[in-house]
Amino acid sequence: MRKLRAGLSLATAGFLSLMISGVVVPSAQADPGAEAGAERYLDSVRHDPARLRSFMLDLPKGGDLHSHLSGAASTELLISLAVRDGLCIHTTTFVAAAGPCGAGQRPAADTSSDPAFRRAVLMAWSMEGFQPGQGESGHDHFFATFGKFGAVTGAHRLDMLADVLDRAGRQNEQYLETMLTRQGGPLFDLSQHITFTDDFAAMRAQVLAGGTMAGITAAATTEMDTDATRLRSLLGCATPAASPGCGVTPRYIQQVNRNNPPNVVFTYMVSAFELAAADHRTVAVNLVSPEEGEVSLRDYRLHMRMLDYLRGVYRTGHITLHAGELVPGLVKPEELTYHIREAVLTGRAERIGHGADVLGEDDWPQLLRTMADRHVMVEINLSSNEQILGLSGRDHPFPSYRAFRVPVTLSTDDEGVSRIDLTHEYQRAATGYRLRYRDLKTLARTSLDHAFLDGASLWRSPDTFVPATPCARDRLGAPHPGPACRTFLAGSPKASVQWQQEAEFTAFEHRYR
């Protein structure tokens, strides 16, 4: 965790009111003068992209809660790893594969000496320079990238994670939740011995029988221990040249490919909950792979029932779900009417990723009211929604979520493939939706309020930003809180990271007074 900056000018006591789309949200213990100064500065640079980016880069953005590790690492890193591994790249499909190179392939090393070849690989492995309408949709190009560089990502989890953490730290992020699959091979092997049945209790008994799942869980925990040690080394955390990524707290979401057969999906779901019960560093389960896939559509409600059952069995582990990453034309109209509702009501999702088609849901106003009442947060991915779905501006439901008081934050999805970062998403939101500084601050606070980090929140209740009772008399982010608050923070990693963010907000606002 970053050290709090010395000599901070601290926020005064009291509360402000924050207007968001006509909704009053209290701003906890904020300094009116400091916030007003940051607001004025934002207005002064709103049409100056370079200075606006600097402002957004400096903003304490909290956490990136929706990040696929396989798509988050920079394309430049993937190319360098392909060179290091001696891989070959097909000159037409741009699929990387182990050597020796055959007909139609070139050594990845050629990207170091041939700028045109490097550029071609970069464009094939990301959305760099992509122009729709050239025989391939943004949706198809985006998802095709993973198969092209898959030979790289499968072998370099830690290099990729170090890259993502370093970038997060350089952007003043405090926290990262990344989606990956631990022990995917052994889990798949186990799933082949599981017979699907609608009796989920019986199927879970199959998964847990014989101790194989327990062994997989233990191996995954050991893997996380090893990862933590190696990450510190890769990031130079014990050296004077430590990466900013050393100050970012990582947590992991066990992902499940929703386009697998139901016995496989269920096995991986059980693994996610078992791992979350065994190790606090795995915090949740999520379903990944295109939502419009044949199996995903066929089994969508089945998957939600599986999660409903498992949520009732396990006390630990959270649920965040890709839902509504759809638009008309991608699926038949009926499929646009229920995915988010099913994820919230049946799948018991605490957070929704994308939620792009919410305005096509049956009785969508009531759904939004339900989400607001239940504090179901939406992870908004502006750039990937435009690249994959062609959805942006006023066509995007981001303003509708805010108008209905549904908690939202910004996230990156696959920042390496998209060629963006979280700073870019904040800048995009500020310019595209005329967000004020207080709106940005709320988005950043919301990310940590809804993070699946262990421990109680700094805030008394979700989305209020009123400090919990032990810290109610303390200045937010103070370097020396009172005894009750200090004890509370020491017992909650989540509240501790939130306190850190508040200290950084104070410093940030005083820099821009």
TrEMBL record:
<dbReference type="Pfam" id="PF00962">
    <property type="entry name" value="A_deaminase"/>
</dbReference>
<comment type="similarity">
    <text>Belongs to the metallo-dependent hydrolases superfamily. Adenosine and AMP deaminases family.</text>
</comment>
<keyword id="KW-0862">Zinc</keyword>
<dbReference type="InterPro" id="IPR001365">
    <property type="entry name" value="A_deaminase_dom"/>
</dbReference>
<keyword id="KW-0732">Signal</keyword>
<protein>
    <recommendedName>
        <fullName>adenosine deaminase</fullName>
        <ecNumber>3.5.4.4</ecNumber>
    </recommendedName>
</protein>
<feature type="signal peptide">
    <location>
        <begin position="1"/>
        <end position="30"/>
    </location>
</feature>
<dbReference type="InterPro" id="IPR032466">
    <property type="entry name" value="Metal_Hydrolase"/>
</dbReference>
<dbReference type="GO" id="GO:0006154">
    <property type="term" value="P:adenosine catabolic process"/>
</dbReference>
<dbReference type="GO" id="GO:0004000">
    <property type="term" value="F:adenosine deaminase activity"/>
</dbReference>
<dbReference type="GO" id="GO:0043103">
    <property type="term" value="P:hypoxanthine salvage"/>
</dbReference>
<feature type="domain" description="Adenosine deaminase">
    <location>
        <begin position="237"/>
        <end position="454"/>
    </location>
</feature>
<dbReference type="InterPro" id="IPR006330">
    <property type="entry name" value="Ado/ade_deaminase"/>
</dbReference>
<dbReference type="GO" id="GO:0046103">
    <property type="term" value="P:inosine biosynthetic process"/>
</dbReference>
<dbReference type="GO" id="GO:0046872">
    <property type="term" value="F:metal ion binding"/>
</dbReference>
<keyword id="KW-0378">Hydrolase</keyword>
<dbReference type="GO" id="GO:0005829">
    <property type="term" value="C:cytosol"/>
</dbReference>
<keyword id="KW-0479">Metal-binding</keyword>
